Amino acid sequence: MSDASGGEPQDPTASDAPLTRRDAAARRAASAADPTAVFQANLRAARSELQGQVAHARAEFEEVNERIKERTGRDLILAILIGVAIGVVVVASLVFVKWVFVLFALGATLLGVFEFSRALGASGRRIDLVPQLVAGAIIVLTGYFLDLWLHWVALFVAVALVLVWRLVAQMIVADGRTYADVLSDVLVGGLVQLYVPFLASMTVVLVRQDGGEWWVLAFVIVAVAADTGAYAAGVSFGRHPMAPRISPNKTWEGFAGAVVVALLAGVLLALFMLGLPWWAGLIIGGVIMITATIGDLGESMIKRDLGIKDMSSWLPGHGGVLDRLDSILPSAVAALALFYLLTPLTAS
């Protein structure tokens, strides 16, 4: 029989309509003699089933990711990918070429200074970006290439440069800004240098020590482990806010997770990386966990005072560079102190 348009007769087996039992049995019987057709049919069925399972798993994962993002403000997929990429760069530079790590530290510091200065400027502060960046580079580089006492001299010179520049710039502008505002601008400008470049320079001071690269890697691992433990425990069990006025997403359950993971990481790193007794690992894990938490809460206070959620959006899933350095910066000072205190144990 021809169709309504007068075309060729249609093969009922080529129709997209569902097959009846009789038609399906007839098709199976017709295909039974053709192994290639049977194989292709099975392959198509397996592919359809796999695609269905992948689509279902993806839908479930996206649903979970959206719930996590709604609760914590992070995109889990992007956060993991970017975190892994940064971790690979840090580990490779520390293990193989120290000066690459110095370049990485310098770049991260300057980006952090830029973010912080821009955020302060948006809040009404007068921050001079060029001297801030120049001074920050001086502090970081002298921490690696000069003796420690010269590094302190460079810190003093860099901070003085920022302060004097702001005072001279204000005198030239003469826009009637009040004395209190000018003093606030000067002090905040000095704070930028002490908070970001100086604390970051402690990592390069540590990495230049004999075996210091392993200490840098160890304290970074502990800080990241504590943050990961807090994140996982907070998402899974978080019920009681830790500091709701500072950071509403942080909970005491998350803090407990940070403590457990940080102590465990400290013990393992002390035994298998630093050559220290297990109890020294507890000290390392506990101290770094505390400084990392203080750094995290401290930056949250700064952002809340400035009325912003993140320092920038350069690192999707994380916020800005300074949002990732908040726990690392104060921990670098603690790690350097622990290096001087605990390294003699490796010789005993």
Helix content: over 70%
Q: Please, how many domains? A: 1
Order of helices and strands: HHHHHHHHEEHHHH
- Tell me the Rg in angstroms: 30 Å
Counted beta strands: 2
Characterize the overall form.
Answer: globular
Number of helices: 12
Task: Give the DSSP E fraction (strand runs of 2 or more residues).
Answer: under 5%
Catalytic activity: a 1,2-diacyl-sn-glycero-3-phosphate + CTP + H(+) = a CDP-1,2-diacyl-sn-glycerol + diphosphate
Membrane topology: Multi-pass membrane protein
Pathway: Lipid metabolism; Phospholipid metabolism; CDP-diacylglycerol biosynthesis; CDP-diacylglycerol from sn-glycerol 3-phosphate: step 3/3
Keywords: Cell membrane, Coiled coil, Lipid biosynthesis, Lipid metabolism, Membrane, Nucleotidyltransferase, Phospholipid biosynthesis, Phospholipid metabolism, Transferase, Transmembrane, Transmembrane helix
